[in-house]
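User: Could you walk me through two proteins back to back? I'd like the raw sequence and the structure tokens for each, with a short line separating them so I can tell where one ends and the next begins.

Assistant: Of course. Protein one, sequence then structure:
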Amino acid sequence: MYLLYGGPGNANLAPHAALQEAGLAEGTDYRFVKLDLKAGDNRKPDYLKLNPHGVVPALVIEQPGSSRVICESAAILMHIADLFPQAGLAPAPGSAERAAYYQWITYLTNTVQARFMNFYHADYFIDGEAGQAAVKAKADTALKEHFAYIDGKLSAAGPYLLGEAYSAADLYLFMLTRWGRNLSRPARDFPQVGKHFERVLARAAVRRTLAIEGIS
């Protein structure tokens, strides 16, 4: 049994969709443990035992007589892709495509997602409304540049980040594109990014994930 802890639409969305892509059934093969982040469920002692940083997601893998915990969205996503190779979410190890897959996921989590932290949580980095507004504005500019870069790459090689092959990296981009709905130029307004979002959104596994998390 797998237990995925997260909040609707948060950084758990991509690994959750990967579980669905792998053919796992919620309630039977895994359980999505929905946390109310606004109420501070992620800061309660039971969750802090899983992830001392108090952020989501956390994946608990329960086995007879033991359990282990994996944190960090990208790590969980890649681990799920490796656990269920039949889902085809990752290229073969050692291949050029695998290297590109690693590069995309690392870029999305280390560069793009990091700027979303500045955009949505400027108060983590600076005090005062004026300073926070400046941090958010710079993050907005940086994120639009990142999505423009991704748009160009999709235009040249699409329809997916690895070309014709759908992968877990596309789930990560889908999650971040959704987060980009509040930018001064929404991420989906970039033509190829928008088409990519709609393409991933049309997948049955992704739609099931959104329904389970309660996202319309």
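----
Protein two, same layout:
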Amino acid sequence: MSFDPKSFLAKVSEGRWVGHYRKGQVIFSQGDAADAIYYIESGGVKVTVVSEQGKEAVVAILDSGEFFGEACLAGQVQRMETVIAMMETVIVGLEKAAVLRLIRYEPAFSEMFIAHLIERMTRVESDLIDQLFNSSEKRLARLLLLLAHFGKDDTSEPTIARISQETLAEMIGTTRSRVSYFMNKFRRLGFIDYNGSIEVHSSLLNVIMHDQSKGKR
């Protein structure tokens, strides 16, 4: 039987709280004290950073069943990013000390959480390689597949909840017009369907496997 973090965390009594956030509400901001981690019970969030020059970038989209804010466990004292609810979202917060206790005394939680950290680290490394070496078309295809959790869910044609083209453009480092062009191309080729939500077909993998736009940013 697989470990269910939602059910497990519901039984934690010390150092735990539940927050309900409306769309657009900030969960924490860049520069805030880093003293807890968070679990998305339902809904979804976007993670943004702002440079010293005031330029904002979306670096991640997270949905139910995912953690964020883990860097406090590695000694981070201030948040390096801002996390904002993208819809009605329920968050379970855990104080740093509570998480450390769970890791030490609850082997099932510890195993699950370490697996999560390894997966997150692998994703960050892959994102960096993607940004450095792949075309914007291929980056968009990869992002859509990741957001749809392609290959992880039981659904044969995963869907992505409503997300703006501006957000997609920020995440892959290109313009909204380029995203619009590629989205229309993907739909024309039968790789995706979208009408509010985006339905991702397995054929979108063709863009990842056979990138025909090398050098086109």
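Residues 153 and 159 are 10 Å apart (CA to CA).

Let me know if you want the two compared in more detail.
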